Amino acid sequence: SAEKISSLGGPSMWIEWGNLARQNKACNLGSGFPNFSLHPDLKEELHTAAENPVTCWYPRAQAHPRLAEELVATYSPLFQREILPTETIVTTGAYQGIHWTFEAFVQAGDEVIVFDPLFDAYIADSIITGAKYVSVPLMLESNSWVLDKELFANSFNSRTKMIVLNTPHNPTGKVFKRDEIELIAKLSKEYNCLVLADEVYDRFVFGGYNHIRIATLPGMWERTITLCSAGKMFGVTGWRLGWAIGAANLIEKLFRVCICDTFGTSTLMQEAIAGMLQRQRMCSPPKESYFIWVEKIFAENYSKLKKAFIDANMPAVHTQGGFFLIVDCSKRKFDFQDSSEYKSSDDHLDKKIARGIVNEFKLALLPLSLFYSPESKVRPTSYLRVCFAKSSETIDQAVEIIKTFH
Ligand code: PMP
Ligand code: GLN
Fold first, then answer.
1. Does any ligand 1 atom lie closer than 6 A to the CB of residue 93?
2. Distance between CA atoms of 311 and 379, rounded to whole angstroms?
């Protein structure tokens, strides 16, 4: 394992590009975290939780009982089945859910199918567990990202152990369609694989698109671990809370990893988030719920940013869900592109442009090429990922910056 950790190489892209944003004191639409101040409901739940002495104690390792109860009540209707408390486990963010799933189910010699571009944790965890990742590219066709079904079907063999399905998708904003999800389900059954369904953006699906939970398809509950993130859901990524949902025998394996890892996650945060989930369930009228509030902010942010980029001759790919907008930077030329430093850099176009924009305009965006696995057969290099899950003030500031692009 020490050897595998060393083989991960230099610091993560998040550290490198996060530092660049900080050094420039940039308006940050790079990393995907909401930055608005705590919603009053969350503030109240946190204060109430802090008054409860139980929240200073170790949690029950699998889940703080009140949160387990809330997960059961919240997710049973969403999965159209009566979920049991033993079918849930709380994690320190979905990051840990991904890591535990790899630890519990994958080993050297196994193959894991991933879709490129992707959230980089899947690659790191494949490397750490010694699994081979097999990359299937999502292709951009007439303004939406599509799965090449033939290539996908040809990626399976007897060593295939797991498929990672992230929908709504980071970084593309794709929401996988029913026929795509049905194919993933069909092949996972045929090859007896597990599906890691990373659904951290499940509450953020744009009008006209449907979030389909693969675990709800026939025969899939038994072979799917669904991961969620309280951080994404309620804009509190710093609270580091998430959960996994799945059949009890699968969750039991994660629990084994849990007890040799953290032995549970902050009781205080679990109690506060349980209160928040309860509020969403009870909210009447529902239009006052946190989800509706945040959805409205993100939809406004999305339109403002999209327009600003289009005006700057950087057309945007239509987002179907999640936190991100993809813009094309190939159609315009910036003044900084004439500098010798820019010309001598051997970075891809998107990296050069993202560096130029953060250094010259103090706006942090991420090059899409960072999100491709090293083995990916395709790597478009003219796109930038823009996070619109930010406060309205941050978006207004970004729009003013984009207007000054020259
Ligand atoms: N999965 C995806 C697809 C993500 O984008 C992220 C983080 N942005 C995570 C998992 C990790 O979420 P968390 O902050 O809950 O650990
Ligand atoms: N997953 C988040 C994103 O895609 C950020 C993760 C991080 O900052 N480590 O932006």
1. yes
2. 26
Amino acid at 346: D
Burial letters for 81-91: b for 16+ Cβ neighbours within 10 Å, e otherwise? Answer: eebebbbbbbb
Q: Is the pTM of this model over 0.90?
A: yes
Choose among 275, 273, 260, 263: nearest CA to 60: 263
Two tokens, residue 331: 């159609």
pLDDT at 338: 94
Alpha-carbon Rg for the chain in angstroms: 21
Strand stretches in 127-199, DSSP E:
132-141, 144-147, 160-166, 194-198
Amino acid letter, residue 3: E
Residue with tokens 């159209």: 80
Q: What ranges make up the beta strands (E) of 231-357?
A: 242-245, 316-317, 324-328
DSSP 205: B
Q: Which atom of ligand 1 is nearest to the CA of 241?
A: 15
Q: For residue range 350-379, what is the model confidence (pLDDT) as tens digits?
A: 999 999 999 999 999 999 999 999 989 899
Conformational region of residue 192, where left means phi above 0, alpha means psi within -120 to 50, and beta covers everything else:
left
**Is 321 a pocket residue for ligand 2 (Cβ < 6 Å)?**
no
User: Using one digit for the tens of pLDDT, what is the confidence trace for 87-106?
Assistant: 999 999 999 999 999 999 99
- Distance set, CA 89 to CA 165, 249, 340 (Å): 19, 12, 53
pLDDT in tens, 185-202: 999 999 999 999 999 999
Q: Which atom of ligand 1 is nearest to the CA of 237?
A: 14
Cβ neighbours of residue 204 under 8 Å, at least 6 residues apart? 168, 232, 295, 298, 321, 322, 323, 389
Q: Is the CB of 170 under 6 A from ligand 1?
A: yes
Domains of the chain by range and CATH? Answer: 2-37+289-403 (3.90.1150.10), 40-282 (3.40.640.10)
With a 6 A CB cut-off, is 34 part of the ligand 2 pocket?
no
Q: Where are the beta strands (DSSP E) in 82-210?
A: 88-91, 111-116, 132-141, 144-147, 160-166, 194-198
CA of residue 232 to ligand 2 center, whole Å? 10
